[in-house]
Each structure stands twice: as C-alpha cells, then as structure tokens.
C-alpha cells in the first residue's frame, strides 16, 4: 500500500514538471508494429513508466514498475500483453525499455520514465518520447545555401597582417611582379658580365670624365 501511494504521489509531481518540458524526442512508428521507448539511468534501483495520452493531455497513466531484479509490477488497470518491460546493463548505465505491441493511433502521446534511486529519491530521466503512430515524420528542411565569399578584409593580429577573402587576388600579382624584377636583374648582370674588359674600361673612364 505504501509503494502504491508513493507511485501516485510521484505521478502527480512529475505531471507538473513534464508540462514545462519542450525538448521532446519524437518517434513516428507505423501502425500494428512493436515500438520501443528507452530510458537510461546510472546507479538506479528501478524505473516507473508513465503515459500521457494525446487525446487527454491532463491525464497521466501509470503503466508499471520495473526494478534491477527484473521484477515488473503493473498497474491493475493496465493491459499486460500490450506493454512489456526490458532491461539491458552496460557498465554503470542501465537501459530500461518500454515495448508497446501493435501500436495504434490511440497509443499516441507522451511516454516517459521516473527513475528511483537508493535513497527513495525519484527523478525524471529525460524529457520523454512523443509517440505519433501512423503519422509521417516531417520533411527535414533543406540545408542553407553556401555562403558567398566576403569582400576583401584586412585584419591585424599584432605585428602580422594577413589578407582574407581577396588574399589570392593580391598575393599572386605580387609574386609575379617579384619574379619579373628578379629576371630583369639577372639579365642585366649577365649582360654586363659578357662585355669585353676594354669596353668596360672605356665605359668606366668615360663616366669619370663626365
């Protein structure tokens, strides 16, 4: 009797919390299939599964209690062939699952779990899952178009300066100009190195007389 009172007290408490939750996970199963809702917890003793029907938003239906020993205690009014519990352990994390057989449109609504810890503390595991059987999932929005290159911008970072946006437009002409100057310089030096010594002597003497 004490456990039953604790369960329904938790149900009323969790109802207030879930009303303010916005970020729900959405699942869109086909009709007449087995659908699974999962709930994870760490160092917990048990979970309590709840359902908020889509047709009656103010109603919260307690489904069953499932502990670490794989003991399941159903609410007397719940169809035990409709809802089944599952449990999988991985390290310190325990994944509980709620399996709903032959889902129908009447099964639509919010499914969530309340986690029970060793110190008799109950907390919601996550926002829950919004189940929409027989409903097509919304088409994802197309990705945004690629951004066009921004205008030429120069930024300073201390002493270093670099070009952004039009860096290539400025860099390659500068490289071409430097290469041209180097070629002219090499050609000039090569030309004078090929002149006879007499010509070079006359050129220097003439320059001194002037």
Automatic annotation (TrEMBL):
Signal peptide: 1-23
The keyword Glycoprotein appears for this protein: yes
Domain Immunoglobulin V-set residue range list: 37-131
Record field: transmembrane: 169-192
Pfam families: V-set
Highest taxon of the lineage: Eukaryota
Gene Ontology process terms (BP): adaptive immune response; regulation of immune response
Any one GO molecular-function label of the UniProt entry: MHC class I protein binding
Family matches, as InterPro entries: CD8B, Ig-like_dom_sf, Ig-like_fold, Ig_V-set
Keywords from the named record: Adaptive immunity, Disulfide bond, Glycoprotein, Immunity, Immunoglobulin domain, Membrane, Signal, Transmembrane, Transmembrane helix
Compartments in which it is found: Membrane
UniProt membrane topology term: Single-pass type I membrane protein
Gene Ontology cellular-component annotations: cell surface; membrane
Cited Gene3D superfamilies: Immunoglobulins
Region feature Disordered, mapped onto this chain: 123-151
Xref: PANTHER family: T-CELL SURFACE GLYCOPROTEIN CD8 BETA CHAIN (PTHR11292), T-CELL SURFACE GLYCOPROTEIN CD8 BETA CHAIN-RELATED (PTHR11292:SF7)
Protein name: Immunoglobulin V-set domain-containing protein
Organism of derivation: Aldrovandia affinis
